[in-house]
Design brief:
The protein has eight helices and seven strands; from the N terminus they run H-E-H-E-H-E-H-H-E-H-E-H-E-E-H. The protein is α/β, with parallel strands linked by helices. The strands form two sheets. The protein has a five-stranded parallel beta sheet, sandwiched between helices. The protein has a two-stranded antiparallel sheet with strand order 6-7. Helix 3 packs parallel to helix 5. The longest helix is centred in the middle third of the chain and has 28 residues.
Amino acid sequence: MRTSVIIVGLLLAGQVGCNLSYDWRVPNPDARIVVFGDSATRGPAEADFSTLLPGLLELPDEAVANEGTSGENTAEGIVRLVRTVDRDLYPNATALIYWQGGTDLIDFVRANDPLLFRFNSPLFQVVLAEELDRIEANLMMVADTAAAAGWQLYLLTYFPLSAEAPCPLVPGGVVTAAQTTTINAYQVALNARIRDVAIARDLVLIDVATIGEDLLADCDSYFDCNHLSAAGNARVADLVAAALGAGTSE
């Protein structure tokens, strides 16, 4: 009984601590663009794409707020997004750039296909579809939350994994050509669901996957196999800035 009380107490303390981090945050009235996502948004490179947006859009640095969290999945992301909106942390924001789903897929593959040989199995495709359904449902909730906040939502697809860069995703840090092909097949399936959400909710799609071949052709575009370098992020920033500029001019 005492052990149960301690466990419940610790869980409540963790929940309170998480809420306090939002309760004590001061709203940022300067931000006009909020960027949410996983390590594609806030990653290991010297510069994330969001840090380059103010210069491209001729905005002050504080006009873009990076709320990216490395390793966050879509379920965690929607909880954090709802808290951000409920707390009105960005009262003057008009745009939400959302790049998430990659962590979900990595966690799924690690748990269900660590040797990367099950992708083409018809039975496994059913399991994969269920996971993609879950990611898609979470992205739909993101769309609902952004709409309720009055934010224009921009969804990004993912770039392909590089076989030429060091790869922390696999033992030994080296990914084979065959493994790369399989991982990128998973990525294509995820990107298809992201596009489906954009179409279903009439959102702006920033299709990073369309510059995938260009990124792969330049090894300097990658920090490691599944993260872009500052140079690669600059390519993404160009796409995002073009989409934001088009949305502003309409």
